[in-house]
Amino acid sequence: MGPETDEALLRRFEPVARFTKGDRFFPMDAERYVRACSLWVRRPGEEAVCLVPHGKLTPGLLAEPRRDEFGTVHYLMFTDPKEAKGLVRPRARRKALREALQGPGPTEEVFKAGRGRLARVGYVSRVMDTLFTLTFLARGRVPGSTAAAGRVAYTRILADHEHYRYHGRVVRQSGWVVLQYWFFYAFNDWRSGFFGANDHEADWEKVFVYLSESPSGEYTPEWTAYSSHNYAGDVLRRRWDDPELEKVGEHPVVHVCAGSHSNQYAPGEYLTELELSFLASLARMLGAARTFWRERLRQYGDDEAEREDGTPAIFRIPFVDYARGDGLTIGPGQDKEWTPPVLLDNPIPDWALHYRGLWGLYTRDPFEGEDAPAGPMYNRDGSVARPWYDPVGWAGLDKVPPPIETLRTVKEQKAAIEARRAMLEAEIEEKSCELKGLGVETVAARGHPHLRALHEDHRRRIGELSEEVNRLRASVAADRVLSNSLEGYAQRLREGDREPARAHISYAQQPASETKLRASRLAEVWAAASVGVMLIVFLWLALYERGEYLVFALSGSIALFLFVEAGFRGRLIRLVTSATLGLAVVAALVLVYEFFWQIVVVAVLVLGLYVLWDNLRELRR
Amino acid sequence: MAELAGSRSSWPVRANGLLLVLQAAGLGGIGAYEVYRVDWQQVEADLSLLPETLDLPETVVLPETVEGAEHAVVTVLVFAPPTVLALLAALGFLFLLRAGWLLAMIVQGLSLLACLLLYSAWTPIFIYPVMLYCIVMALYLNSSDVRAAFHVGQRTGLPQVATRGP
Q: What is the pTM of this model?
């Protein structure tokens, strides 16, 4: 496929990107960004060294091969640290922005958070959030004024040449034609701008559209996949006829999350949760206890408190992704039109192919959240990224044939199963004959002491063979059922019946409901203040209360806090249940402590009586 | 208050109602027995011998009758709320009101709390069967089948998704 066709296809289905009011960075030309950067290298155990200073770097220079020792990290620096230092004060920031805004620039709309993220989650998550914030004191992070410096630098680029550009690539894989739209942002200001988890220079996001091609060369859009944080697989994918997928003509609509630039299908505010890896084992243990509670004891479990994999939700830090779609819209016929795209194929630009370093500041953050990402082709460690080499598998589409191939695939699969079944049946026949022969020989050998070894060997072989024949018969039976299912599926396909559009989604991200967002201001204030106030109250009680009253005072204040919290969150039933079950556990421990031997005696007695009853019942039959 | 719908769920409702009436009778009976076995005239006589002050020194040992009366009063005080609530919950079940389930759970919580308080104070023997009964009731009320019958805790809307990080 030639570059003209590629570009025409890309433009035909290019997405419409809706941003949130107050978002400051939009998809831009990566080459212009590179020209505004400096290039650095950090070798293990050494200070970072500037290889190419600001204003001197070109895409060609970036692509130059660089040999270095293991552990070396090459990275770009978009913001000038000296300039960033001067932008600590808001007044200086405003002045710098005014100077940069000579021409048209990004929107000056102000972001309003609305209901705070902390009001949407429970106590443990709020305490975890406080701890997470404290980790920034020890972790590497993007300095506070860097986002402002990034904004000034980006505004300068826009003032010089206003553009909204994506990088496009067309890939053919497994019968699909994949249109890749790569969006490059100069800065991810999720933390500093939108109360999110991280800030970092540079951000590569992507939207893929999957087309099927008819024999006459017609292209039909079938699926889309939007990048969202580190997700991969089915959860990213929506079928073209899915009502959740908004479209303007043939252009899918993307709701871009403010700051993080994660992509969503529906507008709204999404609760995104960060898992702390060092608490994973504790979370797993709690998950196992919860499973035992629900499945063995047949007790009710709160689904909201756990994730799709069954581990509890309490050890996650909540962040809100604002994908309101009420800001700038970029796309055909929208506020801003896309600037003609840069093609990432035929040939791959050198800067994309040869530069394996980071595209922004390297902060040495052990969690990597504050480090800049690598380019579209690579992971941070320099390995080739899956969305680049396997865009079909990245969205979980590798198990789905294009519609035009589906019926053929079903027929082929059915034929393969039938062939396998015939083979297995022949094998069963052969092994059955062998089995019968061995059986006859074994019977014949019985009663002849000199054939004892042969007899025993035959019996062993009969056992093994019998098991094998049984396994083969089970396979044949399963194949027969599968073959019938495939026939039914083929029939449905011939009748034009399709699977439900959302059958592949086991757990879809949904924006917060209107009811959740309509909580009172008081609830927000409570959520923001409660953890701090609770700690102060505990400290005060510990300092001024003594003896037996301390326990009562602490229990009373905890109960009061929990009651108010449950009231605000509409979870009084959950609180009552948890408190009662907690008391039941304590009471059960008291009973075990007081009557351990009696409980053992009663248990043994009950067991004995049961065995007696069961045996007597058998005798009566 | 929302009413329970459908006759399918009536069996656990009736069973719970009956068990709550039984619980109310048991708790009320314990309180009545504790009050009944106190010789109140003797208590009055013993109290008249004590100095008329509220702030008795710790060295003063209360007569056994006064201590018994004190225990009876405390028992009645801690068991009265769950007894009344158990009757209300049973009435709620009788009229098929969903709030009955919450009341029943509160009854178990209050009864267990009362038992644990008495256990930490003078450990009367009757708390053990009450504790056992309440534990079984709490687990029964929280069992998936009963909660499903009462439609308690059923949520609407799709769950949130978790990510590994940004």
A: 0.72
